[in-house]
Amino acid sequence: MTKQPDDRTVGDASIPETMQAVTCSGRGFENVRVEEVPVPRPGPGQLLARVDAAGVCTSILKLLAQGPDHAFINGWDLSRWPIILGDEGAITIAAIGANLKGQYSPGQRFAVQPAVGVPPICHRERYRNGGQGMHKVAVGYSLPGHLAQYILVQEEVIQAGCLLPLPDEAMASFAVSMAEPISCVYSAQQRHWHLLKDGPHAERRPHVGLLPGGVAVLVGAGAMGRIHAELALRFRPAALVVCDLQEERLDKTTEAIGEKARCCGVHLACVLPDRVQAITRELSGGRGADDIILAVGVP
Ligand SMILES: [Zn+2]
User: Fold this and answer.
1) How far apart are CA 275 and CA 245, in angstroms?
2) How remote is the CA of residue 184 from the centroid of ligand 1, in Å?
3) What is the per-residue pLDDT across 105-136, written as a single tens digit (0 to 9) for each?
4) What's the CA-to-centroid distance between 162 and ligand 1, angstroms?
5) What are the sequence ranges of the domains in the chain?
6) Which residues pair with 271 in a beta bridge?
7) Is the separation of the CB atoms in 39 and 57 below 8 Å?
8) What class has domain 12-177?
9) Cα(147)–Cα(172) distance, rounded to whole angstroms?
10) Any bridge partners for residue 51, and if so which?
11) What is the CATH code of the structural domain delimited by 184-294?
12) Which residues lie at CB < 5 A from ion ligand 1?
């Protein structure tokens, strides 16, 4: 991972005619391919951006299973108008549509929020019933995705405020491209709460997040699981038990957050499933887990 964004030049002159892109032209992996496609030129209300980093998300599996029946695709004929995949990315503005001059400048970097909360604006005729009743579109679905060298940022993304400026220009592009999965995990933890009572006569009060001083169990130490583990530390549980079938993932978790857990005063135990029950009982004094997070792809 590099700390600095790279210094490839940005500007109309450096934009090539074609680029490599991961396209999808129907259901199933057999319709996913890496292709040489034209680099789009932005319309008056659009931007063209260079993709600096992109994530591969398991939501692509649902898209490949459902094809045109996916809610974000809504009847769009993928064989006629193949899409560019990739909902997660970090981008740098390369060219600016006439109506947006002055509002954006070449070289500006953004994270992209892929769930775009506006009805379709471009290519409405390609959706079922002209896109009527749609309140949301998505990047990497009917809006061009990040698994390409350049991305066309359409009006929908701009109108919905889905270009997120970086809080720190030195942020690594890889980290920026993780904004969407991190925000999913953050929002899941913020929707989880406890009702606490400070004394026998006290009012119950809600506490958002994991129980401070409690024992949390996290099942699944894949990419999302490890983000969960790191964000869980902010609630300062007394112990965090992380379990996975693969020892390699447990080692990665220890490597990634072991030191941070120590600094936060959280006892981190990364164990195979056969040890979860015993260690949870031991760490909680027989009480069991206060919080359980399931971060497994298969129910
Ligand atoms: Zn995603």
Assistant:
1) 11
2) 8
3) 999 999 999 999 999 999 999 999 999 999 99
4) 14
5) 12-177, 184-294
6) 243
7) no
8) alpha beta
9) 18
10) 91
11) 3.40.50.720
12) 57, 59, 87-88, 180
